[in-house]
Amino acid sequence: MRNLFKLPALWACALTCTIFSCKKSENTVPDNAASKTSNKITAAVTPVGTVVYTSNGYKLTFTNKEATFDDQERQNFVNTFFTVYPAMVNRFNTSATKNVTFVVDPAYNGVAATSNNITTFSPAWFKNNPADYDVVTHEVMHIVQAYPGGVPGWLTEGMADYSRYKFGVNNANAGWSLPAWSSSQNYTDSYRVTARFFAWLELHVNSSILNNLNTTCHNGGYTSNTWVQLTGKTVDQLWAQYSANPAL
Question: In the predicted model, is pLDDT for residue 207 greater than 90?
Fold first, then answer.
């Protein structure tokens, strides 16, 4: 989700910062003697404060404000970020920032929201839905998108859920999937409905259409005529074609 909660451009934080280092293929643990010996996370909850993780030129600043936030969930967030974000940057926007901030904030009542390079998460949601950490995948796609404006919300959110579909690491365990087509749907429904339409376009219309669409949006050139320029058809004509044969 995007723009559900606006964060200030600069996040003021007076918490202690500890430097962590991680590798994409391994769990991330504190770089201290105890962790080198056991190589295991033993805390049941993540301490309140800020830690910084780095890997292959990417940096994730993780600020936790919830004293009961599960430590394994923190690890899931971190591992997911370093798995999916570089892959999405490489595909969609190689100029995207490599410095991202996560904030776990009990004062936030949604699921998650992204503004600029900061994503805020609701600890209550993940306490009740611990397998749903591919919310991270959806949200950091918004950072990759960095659309300047003029792009309809259904397209922005559809692309983010398409990215969760393509790059997500735990969708099946979370019970998350693209919905079957139904006659009551429209491409403007956003999120998973639009994401499925996008997946169909990639398979049946043009294998590079989403890359090209994303680039057009990122460069501020999106109009309703973009679909005609990319495919020779309007988006409504494409939806009608999809509705006639929606199989993926």
Answer: yes
